[in-house]
Design brief:
heterodimer, A: 219 residues, mainly alpha, MetI-like fold, 8 helices, B: 270 residues, alpha/beta, 6-stranded mixed beta sheet, 4-stranded antiparallel beta sheet, 12 strands, binds adenosine-5'-diphosphate, binds magnesium ion
Chain lengths: 219, 270
């Protein structure tokens, strides 16, 4: 019975898994990039930009992801923004994730002792070089764990994309369950897929952390 | 214009400080400081904690924006583009960078970059500021490290160096840029006593080579034996600036200097 079911629905499930991974990866990497830019603007940009960013962070963090997704997908057309479900899913993922990533980067910036930056200015390093050579490499130490953590949280947030009919994993599983009246097995398989993403993400995070903390170990 | 060299013929002064004042909000950290540093001179700054020694030093390379007066290095106004207007306009970060390359600075807590080896700490600015190739920069960095007797520690990360060694790397990082003056802010205050000597000895070598140095220090022995002049600060004011024999040799006239030095006398340091 079940094996036959999974043969029939396997391709759809795998396709859903692929869409989930696509939305998750593009959305969260986009979120990282936007978050990083926000954190940089907040630190080096003019004062009023800081206030705008503050408001953005508060609003996005203060509303549920599903509402943001609804507004973008169903509200978008009113301002001429017609998006496919997958496009809406990815963009709303970027919008949703970026404030959290911005906060992680902000705390990372703050973790670099001010004296190191002064020392860099004293030998005449340009600010851009200070960012790339002094701040960023060291910042990876305190931010790797929270970044990994948030990537993991986001794997499961992808399930919400099903509400705007993104053909992702949960959407496919629900279709399979409804058509076949089986529930336990499809959702077990679904959990397995999420678990796989979480484990791999966690493993990569741990490896990155090992690598970026090399210099802290005494010989 | 304000950027022209001082007309006063301060005989071979490399740094001239004129009526310098600095506020932190309402708090007056420096008041009306006027001071010259001559070429190849070693000037020590002493005084009680909180008297403004670090602030004065940091105004010299514009790590602190001073509010009043002027600081010139070789006749060039440091930090401000225009002081005829109120509020003053600071130089562009590009112009400030150019000025700072000529002013080496060594901090109490070293501030090495912990993710780079000793060699890379020294080579970094040679590559990105002096635009040397990686190979040239490393060779030059090695020469600087040799000067501070750390050629065999070049590959160590700071975490694998003693405090004294870290401070010598910091000195190498500064001198590799061939600055016109070196500023030291309590370079030995964070060190275990047995490590102080190796840092002071490197500083003495530098002084002997003719480096112009401004040194904030509590090492009265160094001030007495290496300094050409010793300046005493108290409550943001320059109380006196005299040769060490006058500062330490006889009973000081000023009560503040007397009581400050008394604490060292009691410990037989001077
Ligand atoms: N960034 C700052 N903000 C406010 N006050 C400061 C700051 N830096 C120094 N001060 C104050 O200025 C005075 C002089 O400080 P400092 O130059 O560090 O003294 P010193 O180096 O002689 O111990 C102190 O009273 C200190 O509290
Ligand atoms: Mg100080």
């Amino acid at each position: 019975m079940e094996t036959e079911l999974f043969v029939r629905y396997g391709p759809a499930l795998l396709y859903g898994f692929g869409i989930t991974i696509l939305c998750w990866l593009v959305g969260s990497i986009g979120g990282v990039i936007v978050g990083f830019l926000l954190a940089c603007l907040n630190r080096w940009g003019p004062r009023f930009i800081g206030w705008v960013i503050y408001a953005y962070v508060e609003v996005i963090r203060g509303t549920p992801f599903m509402i943001q997704l609804f507004i973008l997908y169903y509200g978008g057309p009113y301002i001429g923004l017609l998006l496919t479900p997958v496009q809406a899913g990815i963009i709303s993922f970027i919008i949703y994730g970026s404030p959290y990533f911005a906060e992680i980067f902000r705390s990372g910036f703050n973790a670099i002792p001010k004296g190191q930056i002064e020392a860099a200015r004293c030998v005449g390093l340009p600010e851009s070089r200070i960012l790339w050579r002094i701040i960023l490499p060291q910042m990876l130490v305190p931010i790797t764990a929270p970044l990994t953590n948030f990537f993991i949280i986001l794997t499961k947030e992808t399930a919400i994309l099903s509400v705007v009919t993104v053909p992702e994993l949960l959407f496919q599983t629900q279709t399979m369950a409804a058509e076949t009246f089986t529930f336990v097995e499809p959702f077990l398989v679904l959990s397995l897929f999420y678990w796989l993403m979480v484990v791999v993400t966690g493993w990569i995070g741990a490896r990155v952390e090992q690598r970026v903390t090399r210099h802290l170990k005494r010989a | 214009m304000s950027n022209e060299p001082m007309t006063t013929k301060a005989d071979d002064a490399i740094i001239t400080v004129r009526n310098l004042s600095k506020y932190f909000d309402d708090f007056e950290a420096l008041r009306d400081i006027t001071l010259d540093v001559k070429r190849s001179e070693v000037l020590c700054l002493i005084g009680p904690s909180g008297s403004g020694k670090s602030t004065l030093l940091r105004c010299l390379n514009f790590l602190e924006q001073y509010d009043g007066g002027e600081v010139h290095l070789d006749g060039e106004l440091i930090g401000w583009k225009d002081i005829s207007h109120n509020p003053r306009k600071p130089l562009s970060s590009e112009a400030l960078r150019k000025q700072r390359q000529h002013i080496g600075m060594v901090f109490q807590h070293f501030h090495l970059w912990p993710h780079m080896s000793a060699l890379d700490n020294v080579a970094e600015a040679l590559m990105s500021v002096r635009k040397l190739t990686k190979k040239e920069a490393r060779e030059k960095a090695m020469t600087a490290l040799t000067k501070v007797h750390l050629e065999d520690k070049a590959q160590n990360y700071p975490a694998n160096l003693s405090g004294g060694q870290q401070q010598r790397v910091a000195i190498a990082r500064a001198i590799a840029m061939e600055p016109r003056v070196m500023l030291f802010d309590e370079p030995t205050s964070a060190l275990d006593p047995e490590l102080v000597g190796e840092v002071l000895s490197v500083m003495k070598d530098l002084a002997a080579e003719g480096m112009t140095m401004v040194v904030v220090t509590h090492e009265m022995g160094f001030a007495a034996h290496v300094a050409d002049r010793v300046a005493f600060l108290d409550s943001g004011r320059l109380v006196t600036c005299v040769p060490p024999q006058e500062m330490f040799g006889r009973e000081p006239d000023d009560a503040r200097v007397r009581s400050f030095l008394q604490t060292y006398r009691e410990r037989n340091v001077v």
